[in-house]
Design goal:
This protein has 97 residues and is of the alpha+beta class. It contains three helices and six strands; from the N terminus they run ββαβαβββα. Helix content is 32%, strand content 26%. α1 packs across α3. The protein is elongated and about 45 Å long. The two termini are 18 Å apart.
Length: 97
C-alpha cells in the first residue's frame, strides 16, 4: 500500500509492506519520485532510530530518549528523496517482474 501525505508543505510517502529486494526498493522509490514525494517515512524512521518525530516548518523535529522531553530539530535536506535515473528505474522494474 502506497501512502502520500502533505505535512508542513512537504509530501511524505510510505510503502507497506516494506520491500526487501533491491530492485523492488528502487522501483518503489521511483514511484515516490514521480509522485513528487519529498521524504519517505521509512527512511526517516531508520535514520533517527525509530524515535518519534514530526515534519514541521522548522525541519525534522525528533524526540529521542525516554520521556521525549528534549526535542532536536534537524534539517530536512539530508533526508530528501534522491534523484533516480530513468534507465535505472526502468531496469529495476524489468528485473522485478
Amino acid at each position: 500500500m502506497l501512502t502520500f501525505e502533505e505535512q508542513s508543505g512537504h509530501i511524505a510517502g510510505s510503502f507497506q509492506p516494506r520491500p526487501n529486494e533491491p530492485q523492488l526498493i528502487l522501483a518503489v522509490a521511483g514511484v515516490h519520485r514521480m509522485a513528487g514525494v519529498d521524504l519517505i517515512r521509512e527512511t526517516l524512521s531508520d535514520a533517527i532510530g525509530h524515535a518519534p518525530y514530526d515534519i514541521s516548518e522548522r525541519g525534522l523535529v525528533v524526540w529521542p530518549g525516554p520521556g521525549y522531553s528534549m526535542e532536536q530539530v534537524l534539517p530536512l535536506a539530508p533526508f530528501a528523496t534522491p534523484p533516480i535515473l530513468w534507465r535505472d528505474w526502468a531496469a529495476a522494474w524489468r528485473s522485478a517482474t
